[in-house]
Design goal:
Shape: globular
Strand order of the largest sheet: 7-6-8-9-10-14-15
Radius of gyration: 28 Å
Structural class: alpha/beta
Largest sheet: 7 strands, mixed
Helix content: 40-55%
CATH topology of the domain at 368-536 and 554-606: Rossmann fold
Oligomer: single chain
Number of strands: 15
Length: about 625
C-alpha cells in the first residue's frame, strides 16, 4: 500500500494502548475493573465501556470514576454519542483536579469527533499539560495535533507531535508518531517549508529539512544520491530524534505495494440526501464491471450506508471477505471511518476532506479544486493576466471564487474584481455593472452634470484593464448572464467558465447563446476523447432518464471500478479515465486533469490540452459534483 502518510488517526491510536487510565485507586483493582482494563488493552473498547458502565451503576461511591473510564472507552471505540451521554450527569465541581482534567480531555475528544474543532482548541488552550498524567498528556498532544491538522495549521500540528514523541513509551510508538510528522510535512509545498525553516525551533527545523530531502531525493531512483543527502542531513542535525533506521524504513514505505482485491464492498446510501447520487455512481460502476476487458472480475457486495454507520459497515465488509471498500460518499461518513478505525484494508472514498490522510485511505471525487486549477491553467496558457470573477452568492459560489482566486494568483495573474449574483434572479445587471465599473462611470457622469449644471452627452464606459472574465454559472443562468455581459459593453472580453455551464449533452440551438465561452470538463462528455463500450453514447440507455446535474457521476462510477487495477501505478503513471487524466498526489487524493472546450456556433469544440500541477493541493472540496 502506498503509505505516504497517516496524518489523521483515531484519537487514541492503536499504539497507545496506555490511553486507558492506569489504576491508581483501590476500587479500580476489583475483578470487574481489571477485566474492563484488559478489554481496553486488547482493543475491545466496547466491551470495556459496557463493564465500566455497569460498575458505575452498581458502585455509586465511585460512579464518576467509572463513568469517565466508560466514556473514554466509548471514544476509543468511535462511539462519541455514548460517551457524551455518560458524562452529561457529571457535576465538575464535585470532581478532583485529576478527574476534571480527564473530563476536559473527554469533552475535547467529543468536540473533535463532532467537528467542533474551534471549541476543542479553546479547551486545549486553557489546559496545562504538565498537570496531567503521562497517559493523559498523550491524549492531550494527540488531540492538539489533530485539531490543528483539521484547521489546516499543519506546522502547529507537527509541533504538537514533537512534544508527544518523548512521552511515548516504546520505540514503535515513537516511530509511528514520527511517521505522522513526516507525512504531515509532506502535504506542504516545498516553498512553504523553505520559508518556515529558518524561524522554527531546532527539532522542527530538522524535520522540515528532512521532509524537503525526501521530497527531492527518491531512494529507489538514485540510492547513492539519497544516502549522500542523508549523511549531510545527519551532520547538520546529529541529535535529532529521527535516526537512520527510521528514515530508511520510512523511505521504503513510500513505495506502492497495493494488492489487487478479489472481493469489493461498496458503501453507498440507499436513502436520504445522497441516495440519487449514489444510485447514479452505482450505475456507472456496474457498467464498468460488466464491460471489464480484463480477467479482473472480483465479487461485489453493496452496503447501505444510510442504514448503518460507516465503521460497523467497514467491519462487516471485512468479516464477509472484502479486500477493498469503495465509499463512503458523504464527508461525515468518511471522517467517521478515518477517525474511528485503523484501516486494515484499503478504502477508496468517493469524496475529499482537506488535510485528511491516513494509511490505506484514497480519496476520489469530482472536486471543484481540479476544475479551478484546469480553467485557470487554460487562461494562463492563453496569456491572460488581469481577470474579473463572477460567481453565485451561495456557499458553493463563494468557495469556487476562493479556489479560482487562489489558483489564478499562483499563475502570476491578478484578480481585479470579484462580484456575486443572486442565482434565484434573472436580472444580473447590478453585479455585472459593478464588475465592469459601469456604476462608477455613471457616478462620475452624475457628479460632472451636477457640477456644470447642464445636460451632457453620456456613454457608459467599462473598465479597460481586464483581459478576461471567470464565470461560475449553470447553463440556464449563463444563457442570461452572458448576453447581459455583452449588453453592458463586455463584448470581446473572453469568458472562461466552470463545467456547470455545460449540461453534458449537445444542445446547439440553446448553447449558441454561449458562443466563445471556454470551459473544462470530464473526458467522458466528449465523444472524440472517451470512446468504446463505456462512452457516453454507448451508455445512453443507462443515463438518459437521469437528471442532468447527476450525469457526471456516471463517469465517477466508471472510474471507481477501473481505478482498482490502476491504484498501484497512478502515483507514477497517470491514467486516462472517464473523469479526467488521473494521478495520485501526496495527500492520497486522486486528482484530475480535464479536457477544455469552447462553444462555437452552439457546438462544443475541443481546445488544445493544458497541463496543471496537481501534487500539492490540499484545499477543501465540495461533497460531490454538482
Amino acid at each position: 500500500m502506498n503509505r505516504h502518510y497517516i496524518v489523521l488517526s483515531t484519537i487514541c491510536l492503536s499504539l497507545l494502548a496506555g490511553c486507558a487510565a492506569s489504576p491508581t485507586q483501590r476500587h479500580l483493582y476489583t475483578k470487574e475493573a481489571i477485566k474492563a482494563e484488559a478489554f481496553s488493552q486488547q482493543g475491545q473498547h466496547k466491551q470495556a465501556a459496557s463493564l465500566y458502565q455497569s460498575l458505575a451503576e452498581t458502585k455509586p461511591s465511585y460512579r464518576d470514576d467509572y463513568r469517565l473510564l466508560a466514556a473514554e472507552a466509548y471514544i476509543q471505540s468511535g462511539d462519541s454519542p455514548s460517551a457524551q451521554a455518560l458524562i452529561e450527569p457529571i457535576n465538575p465541581s464535585l470532581l478532583s483536579a485529576q478527574q476534571r482534567n480527564k473530563l476536559n480531555l473527554i469533552i475535547i475528544q467529543i468536540d473533535l469527533s463532532n467537528g467542533e474543532t474551534e471549541k476543542a482548541l479553546q479547551r486545549l488552550s486553557v489546559t496545562q499539560p504538565y498537570n496531567l498524567s503521562t497517559s493523559d498528556q498523550i491524549i492531550f498532544y494527540q488531540s492538539l495535533a489533530f485539531a490543528h491538522s483539521l484547521t489546516g495549521n499543519l506546522l502547529q500540528s507537527v509541533q504538537a507531535r514533537i512534544e508527544l514523541t518523548p512521552i511515548l513509551q516504546t520505540s514503535q510508538q515513537r516511530n509511528e508518531n514520527n511517521t505522522v510528522i513526516l507525512d504531515t510535512l509532506a502535504l506542504l509545498p516545498s516553498q512553504t517549508l523553505n520559508l518556515q525553516q529558518a524561524s522554527t525551533p531546532p527539532i522542527l527545523r530538522g524535520w522540515i529539512s528532512l521532509a524537503n530531502l525526501l521530497k527531492h531525493n527518491k531512494p529507489q531512483q538514485n540510492p547513492d544520491a539519497f544516502q549522500l543527502a542523508l549523511i549531510e542531513w545527519q551532520q547538520l542535525f546529529p541529535q535529532h530524534p529521527a535516526n537512520a533506521g527510521f528514515i530508511q524504513s520510512y523511505s521504503e514505505g513510500l513505495q506502492n505495494t497495493f494488492k489487487r482485491p478479489n472481493a469489493i464492498a461498496l458503501l453507498l446510501p440507499e436513502s436520504g440526501r445522497f441516495a440519487k447520487a449514489a444510485e447514479t455512481i452505482k450505475t456507472g460502476f456496474m457498467a464498468a464491471y460488466q464491460h471489464s476487458q480484463s480477467s479482473f472480475q472480483p465479487s461485489v457486495r453493496f452496503y447501505d450506508s444510510s442504514a448503518n454507520n460507516a465503521i460497523n459497515l467497514y467491519y462487516q465488509a471485512i468479516s464477509e471477505g472484502a479486500e477493498l471498500v469503495i465509499g463512503p460518499l458523504s464527508k461525515d461518513n468518511i471522517q467517521d471511518l478515518a477517525l474511528g478505525v485503523d484501516l486494515t484494508i484499503p478504502v477508496l472514498a468517493l469524496n475529499h476532506i482537506p488535510n485528511l490522510a491516513k494509511n490505506n485511505l484514497f480519496q476520489f471525487g469530482l472536486s471543484p479544486i481540479d476544475e479551478s486549477k484546469q480553467i485557470t491553467s487554460k487562461a494562463s496558457i492563453d496569456d491572460i493576466k488581469n481577470v474579473l470573477l463572477l460567481t453565485p452568492e451561495t456557499n458553493n459560489g463563494l468557495r469556487t471564487a476562493s479556489y479560482i482566486s487562489e489558483d489564478w494568483q499562483l499563475t502570476g495573474g491578478t484578480v481585479l474584481e470579484t462580484q456575486h449574483y443572486n442565482s434565484k434572479e434573472n436580472d444580473f445587471s447590478e453585479p455585472i455593472k459593478d464588475l465592469l465599473n459601469l456604476t462608477e462611470s455613471q457616478y462620475r457622469y452624475r457628479r460632472l452634470k451636477q457640477f456644470l449644471a447642464k445636460n451632457l452627452g453620456f456613454t457608459e464606459r467599462r473598465r479597460t484593464d481586464v483581459d478576461a472574465i471567470f464565470l461560475s454559472a449553470s447553463a440556464q443562468k449563463a444563457r442570461s448572464i452572458y448576453p447581459q455581459l455583452r449588453f453592458h459593453r463586455a463584448t470581446g472580453v473572453p469568458v472562461y467558465a466552470t463545467p456547470q455551464i455545460y449540461t453534458g449533452t449537445p444542445n446547439p440551438s440553446a448553447d449558441i447563446d454561449l458562443n466563445s465561452i471556454v470551459f473544462c470538463d470530464i473526458p467522458w462528455l466528449f465523444a472524440d476523447i472517451y470512446t468504446g463500450e463505456l462512452s457516453q453514447e454507448s451508455l445512453r440507455d443507462s443515463w438518459q432518464h437521469i437528471p442532468a446535474k447527476y450525469l457526471r457521476l456516471i463517469a465517477l462510477g466508471i472510474d471507481s471500478f477501473n481505478l482498482i487495477t490502476e491504484l498501484e501505478q497512478i502515483s507514477s503513471t497517470p491514467y486516462l479515465g472517464a473523469t479526467g487524466y488521473l494521478s495520485l498526489n501526496r495527500e492520497n487524493r486522486i486528482t484530475r486533469q480535464l479536457a477544455c472546450a469552447k462553444f462555437i456556433d452552439g457546438q462544443v469544440v475541443l481546445q488544445q490540452p493544458s497541463t496543471v500541477e496537481t501534487n500539492t493541493d490540499f484545499t477543501d472540496a465540495e461533497e460531490f459534483y454538482p
